[in-house]
């Protein structure tokens, strides 16, 4: 008997008919001789709707109360799914994150899992029940408050439970058949990957691929959890994400596994900052104290005829939602930092090329930049790792860039990818 953890996203449980479809699918999995633990997200756009309600009644909703509100979405899904399973003749019990033993730190809105004690879930499974767990949420012992794990947190809940339960497999269900070489909404001819190594999947997630949340992939790599990405609406076997080194070695390394785009970033340029030791540290200390996460950083060559008046420009990218608070923080510290002016741009897009084979193959950069040049795409910033090259372009060019680069690396398939529900989760 295998123990399988399944996670269903919001598009999979978006209405009553979809919930009943998922219930039948789960029962079929149990009927094959498996123990099944299921993690669910909130139905459809429930989380966004709850956030809108919160912002209608409060200008700046308190984190504790916002978490209490938002976790209601997943509790609705878990209870409805358990009811649907029971109605079909199987046995099911639902659990909140705290009942499932998901213990977190005390950070509201973006808590991190500290430990998982799934005793009640294990007891339910051993008694022949299907266990349904509300994703995205946990409990802090010190504050005794409910917490949320941030957007995409249900993926992390599923992987954490799979690790704690010593599950044989963690399946992440969405509205596409697996991990594709690019977002099929942007590149319709993207090909589904049969397998991908966890390092490449981590880079794709970090670069903006929405199919798996980055924290879930990090957790899977750290705890050696095998993931499979599948569609709720087909029987396609999906894509296996290989965390085990032996499995990765057996897989032929692709030079480029996929292309990812990210339209959620903005750019800040700190112009004319003194070129002396400690100024860059002061800039990024200010950014860190504002609570922002930085992605790409570029510093230009210093200018100035004399050592005492040499200055440089520092450009970095960050999430759009954090742009204003960082600009305000930098402005408040202008006298200390000593820069001339600030520039910002929220109309940018990031394109990333990812592949484990890039470590040992030359010419990837040449293909990438030739394709961008032939498509008349202007590159504003460049960042690299061992298995990734990322560039910043104008927001209105990033989709064209993705299609051009995808074709240049011969990643196009022979048919159009199927998208069953339309949101990507």
Structure description:
By secondary structure, this protein is of the alpha/beta class. It has a domain at 3-251: Acetylglutamate kinase-like (Carbamate kinase, 3-Layer(aba) Sandwich). The chain contains 13 helices and 20 strands. An eight-stranded mixed sheet has the order 3-6-2-1-9-11-12-10, sandwiched between helices. It has a four-stranded antiparallel sheet with strand order 13-18-20-19, with helices on both faces. It has a four-stranded antiparallel sheet with strand order 15-16-14-17, with helices on one face. A hairpin with a 4-residue loop joins strand 7 and strand 8. Helix 2 runs antiparallel to helix 3 and helix 12 crosses helix 13 (398-408).
Could you provide a short overview of the structure?
This protein is an alpha/beta fold and 425 residues long. It has a domain at 3-251: Carbamate kinase (3-Layer(aba) Sandwich), CATH 3.40.1160.
